[in-house]
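Tutorial, part two.
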Amino acid sequence: MDLVIRAAVVFGFLFCLLRLIGRRELSSLEPFDVILLVVIGDLAQQGVTQNDASVTGVMLVIGTIALLSVGTSYLNFRFRRLRPILDGEPVVLVEDGRPIERNLRRERITLEELAEAARLQSVASLRDVRWAVLETSGEISIIRRSD
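Running the prediction step on this input gives:
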């Protein structure tokens, strides 16, 4: 039972940590970031299982984390009010060609990164953007102006 409780606590901690890191960072992982995630996973595993290397212990931990993951997904699907907490909400970054500085700062996105996202979607200038939205997946959606 101790393994199940530790797995649940670590799941909750990692869930909150990943929400705090921000979706933009998680959508564009650099090689170093991937290595850090692997190290975090290994450290979490050591903290959860401690000295228990038994097959039963591993199955309990993996089962607990899988159930919590499926449960979180189900809550997100079933209860609309929990979606902003569990999944986040899209954030408007540009409206009618004008960057929204407060939202860019909050999401730690530079104007250069925003301009790059626009160029990747064949938009030459931010002035040509009606809406730029940071989606919950971490990707930036661009809607052109139709002047």
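The first helix runs from residue 2 to 21. In part three we will examine how such features are distributed along the chain.
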